[in-house]
Amino acid sequence: MDKRTLICEKNSRSNKEARFEDHGHSAWLYLTRANSPVVVADCWIYNRIKAPKESEISKFRTSSPPAVASYAHPHAEFTPLQSDNFEFKWSPDGRSVALLINGIPFGFIPPGAQRGYSKHLIKTGPWGHKWDEKLYLILFNESGWSESIPGFF
What is the DSSP string of 63-84? Predict the structure, then answer.
């Protein structure tokens, strides 16, 4: 299946662009450099297929492969419906972005990170970081915004 962009949006404050793409076997959130199409960070969101074994990953010759079974949650296989609503949620400064499906956050990219945080990861590794609820709440102003988050600024 060909890669397709489901949604794309530029943040007016940071001038970064977020893209959510479905690659047929997996779906990813991307964040670009300010005023540039160059992707600087990504976040694996879900697989469209059953998670392959690590020995099978080499057959996916792509920079955005599906997460393997040893990293993906057993419920990480997801096929979107026409009625599903995909949207971005930006941090107040526009440096972080989250992908929400039907109002539920599935993944986010914090400032300065090359790999994001996904609700469908059971451990941190090549596909990104395991979900961090506390960091999500801080970044997206759901528990009080702080201009200083250790390790990110």
Answer: SSPPPPTTTB-TT-B----TT-
Which residues make beta-bridge pairs with 31? 18, 41
Q: What is the CA radius of gyration of the chain?
A: 15
Q: Is 110 exposed, middle or buried (0-12, 13-18, 19+ CB in 10 A)?
A: buried
Identify which of 21, 78, 29 has the alpha carbon closest to the alpha carbon of residue 51.
Answer: 78
- Of 54, 75, 74, residue with least CA distance to 65: 54
∠ at Cα 140 (134, 142), nearest 5°?
A: 70
- Name the pairing type of β-strands 117-118 and 129-130: parallel
What 8-state DSSP symbol labels residue 119? T
- If pLDDT is split at 50, 70 and 90, which confidence band does 54 have? confident
Identify the CA nearest to 4 among candidates 33, 24, 18: 24
pTM over 0.85: yes
What pairing do the DSSP bridges indicate for beta strands 97-101 and 86-90? antiparallel
**Sheet containing strand 129-130, strands side by side:** 86-90, 97-101, 104-109, 117-118, 129-130
